[in-house]
Amino acid sequence: MRKSEVIGLILFFVGLSVFTTLPFLSQYRLSEELLRSQVKDIHRDQLAELMQPMYGQTYPSTYSFLTAYSSYFQPYNEELKAKQAWDQVIWDDYGFALAKAAMDGPGKTNPWISLGLSIGLIVLGGILFNFSRQDTAHASLAHTGVFHSTLKNRGLLGMLTGTYLILFYVILYWFPAYLAPLVWMVDPISQFLSGGPASQWFLYGLVYTLAIGVMGVRMLLKYRDNRYQQLRTASLVFFQTAFAFIIPEVLVLLNKPYFDFKNIWPLDYDFFYDYQLDTFISSGGLGLFMLIWGILLIVLGVPLFTYFYGKRWYCSWVCGCGGLAETVGDGFRHLSDKSLKAWQWERWMIHGVLALAIVMTTLTIVNYFSSFSLLGQVTNQLHSFYGFAIGSAFAGVVGTGFYPMMGNRVWCRFGCPLAAYLGLVQRFKSRFRITTNGGQCISCGNCSTHCEMGIDVRAYAQQGQNIVRSSCVGCGVCASVCPRGVLKLENGPEEGRIHEFPILIGNDSIKLRS
Amino acid sequence: MDSRHYVIIGNGVSGITFARHLRKGNSQARITVISGESPFFFSRTALMYVYMGQLKWEHTHPYEPHFWKKNRIELLQAWVRTLDFDTKTLGLESGETLNYDILVLATGSKPAFFGWPGQDLKGVQGLYTKQDLELMETTTSNGIQRAVIVGGGLIGIEMAEMLTYKKIPVTFLVREGRFWEQVLPEQETSLVQKHILEHSIDLRLKTELKEILADEQGIVRAVVTTEGEEIACSFVGIATGVTPNVEFLKNTGLSIGKGVQVNSYFESSVPGVYAIGDCAEFAQSPGPGRRTLEQVWYTGRMHGETLAHNFCHKPVSYQPGVWFNSAKFFAIEFQTYGVVSTEPSERAPYFYWEHRLGKVSFRMELDGEGKIVGVINLGFRLRHAFFDRAIREKWAGQLVIQRLEEGIFDPEFYAPYHLEIQQAFQSQFGLEISTKKRSFLQKIFGARL
Q1: Per-residue model confidence as pLDDT tens digits over A186-213
Q2: 8 Å CB contact of A145 and B306
Q3: Structural domain tally of chain A?
Q4: C-alpha distance from A379 to closest chain B C-alpha (Å)
Q5: Are the beta carbons of A514 and B21 separated by less than 8 Å?
């Protein structure tokens, strides 16, 4: 290891330790004034009275604070539920808001220093490490050693990384109050971008964007001989930074609805939810534009772009999930399951999620336009189920947390309903294919092994067949890892794109149909 | 339908291709594949990637285990020790016997050893089988100060790359005056040699192995070259070519030369016994410029395809098409289509272009009338279908260069080498080449030359 590599690693781990320790270095002190500033009008008096015993108390940890809060809040709420006084039950979760307001600690008192010592060091160390490491390895040897790595081959380090990621997602989705000390340190950035305080989602967005950026640098270096890889990585970093992170925040600053212009239903599953539609309709010209833009992407953007370029235009050039998978997740791509069984599961699951998203959205829209007379609040139950099971558990916890166990595209392969939609277009009406170079395949298996979508690329290549698969995201790694120049991503005429019985070039004795 | 029992000895690419295609054309036949080396067909060309942690062993299997059951191809892991052609019986090492109706020998090759003193020492080996890989993994797992590779061909450079991955210093002995001179012309060789040196390989040209010395435990401690130099090392990789694996077939009544002697229908001297792949030796060269021993992946596959066809349809003789091959030297990919001479001659005018950074080159050999005979390309990829057609249809060199862009197989946004090649061709031959302009997007985003 070079000195700079070691320094990079040390900085990274110091930063990660600070990031992980910060939440434990805070204390909480609630006052009635603070509480009143954080809750809705309708709950204000009731909660102010309930929380009386907490005022002036100092809680040394997030846990003790939340326990105290629950001990006063839960019995009250449960009683209302038992009495079936549904209109009085408090459905809002004020845990995060109160914890953030009542918190005191380094993240709040010294946000910039905390940020610099945690995320700052992580980013700095990561970049330093990537620069010095990728400089030493030759580009063509970029994939060697992955199965000798404890991080990349489900070793101890891999399992630890997976566990850390899973814990992070569980806390983010279901126990965000524990992140309050970290959210404070990104507050100044949020204030600068959107003029408002940071939420856990802002923290997540920032971390996510930086992760794609830092690991994007790694990709640019790793593939310095391959312009296709460089361009798509740059594109992913750009769309994440500008479209997913900065523009929505600036929209809020300008008093416009928060909107990610590149997110497409049904990945953006709440696009047609009643509150979203209300927001679009009540936000003037721009709101209407957002609504129309979103619909145009669904009905025109997806089919047209996918027809010309395959689903890769989205999945490995634009998408945020794809952005994380292709950068942070790149080192785990070979862990995807290539078996026929996995392919069978994949088809049922991903199309199942697509069907679920369509049913849910249709019900929501019908309900919306019938002024909730059709189903009343039932769609809300459906939304919370989908949000919990698909939006959080599948896409987040499993999708990212399981990178070191199941590869970097678990969500994209088994769960993403937009990928399913793009895939149907790609399979049946597209100019995109991966071309096999005549008879040059030696069946070595590098393409299949390093396919993040678990496609058995070799099965096609060794019989001279083009690869036309709905799941292919066109990352181009099969072509790059091939030692014999056999694979090429191409857009071309639809005619001859799929040939069931190709003829391998090179044998004149027979015209053989494999 | 033909329900005979087909027994194939060897589960490499030729044997398995034969079995697969036979099953496709014949649902009745009983098919048994015997191999002592491994229970399942694997890609021999991928051994190096397992060593370098780029693949796991199971990734070298082109078919999942359920494939064999589904296709009713019986796999038998065993070594064949005796063959009785009169009773059509095979004797296995375990003592069991197996009867066949049709026997297909697809036993492949083994590394050629030339009787060097000390070649049987511990730490001396070739790289061909699964067992060779396992041995190399064990031998080089710790504390290797230096390794010596003998033989300037493809397996030699693969072994050098493998050892370099483990940061083991390598001395590379090449008997000839330049690397792989049987195939590469001089300019290509020097390009590749520069690349080898960049990887800190101690490349010794015109240097042969004389003997291998042992330490007290019978483990290799050094090699001595023909110049008398002693090079301390604890691993010696023998990569001086391969020879048909036919030792166990001698004295069985089968006619054996270098390999199992066959005609162009793969029929051996014994009725009902055939040979395909590396172990088959044709009585006559199967095509102009082709050798009687064909020992590459692609020919093994074609042999299997053709013989299977002959059992399912009207038999045809083996007629390979335009020659092609590929390899990789560390980071530099090599492809060739058609036939290219290694030495310049008046009968074989050629065009050669090399990129200024010395990692990419293109050579086209022409015949006396200026028509394409073959190409060699290093560092960039060419399209098989394009060059197969150009060579088969005997395109003029000028036409090939004119349409070269269609023949490029590099990833999108690649550096437009064809533009430089076209320019160079134009100035060398004084022939006008009209070139297509690059699109606006390619100009902005495409890689630079």
Answers
A1: 999 999 999 999 999 999 999 999 999 9
A2: no
A3: 2
A4: 45
A5: yes
A195 part of a folded domain: no
Its ipTM equals: 0.95
From chain B, the residues in CB contact with A514 under 8 A are 21, 24, 305
In a domain, A208, yes or no: no
Q: Is residue A503 part of a domain?
A: yes
Asked whether the beta carbons of B322 and B392 are under 8 A apart, the reply is yes
B409: chain A residues, CB-CB within 8 Å: 435, 437, 485, 488
Chain B residues touching A146 at Cβ < 8 A: 53-54
**Residues forming a β-bridge with A456:** none
Find the CB nearest A506 among B298, B313, B409: B298
Instruction: Note the pLDDT tens digit of each residue in B141-178.
Output: 987 999 999 998 999 999 999 999 999 999 999 999 99
The residue among A43, A76, A103 that closes a domain is A103
Q: Give the residue numbers spanning the domain of A465.
A: 432-510
Q: Cβ of A91: how many Cβ atoms within 10 Å?
A: 8
CB contact under 8 A, B411 and A488: yes
- Between chains, do B317 and A509 touch, taking CB under 8 Å as contact? yes
Residue A167 lies in a domain: no
pTM of the model: 0.95
The residue type of A294 is G
Domain CATH code at residue A443:
3.30.70.20
Which residues have a Cβ under 8 Å from the Cβ of B41 and sit 6 or more positions away? Answer: B11, B12, B13, B16, B33, B61, B62, B63
Q: Which of A103, A135, A152 is the last residue of a domain?
A: A103
pLDDT digits (tens, 9 = 90+) for A340-362: 999 999 999 999 999 999 999 99
The residue written with tokens 């070649």 in the block is: B119
Say how far apart CA A506 and CA A139 lie, in whole Å.
Answer: 31
Do residue A480 and residue B411 have CB atoms under 8 angstroms apart?
yes
For tokens 């802002």, the residue is A202
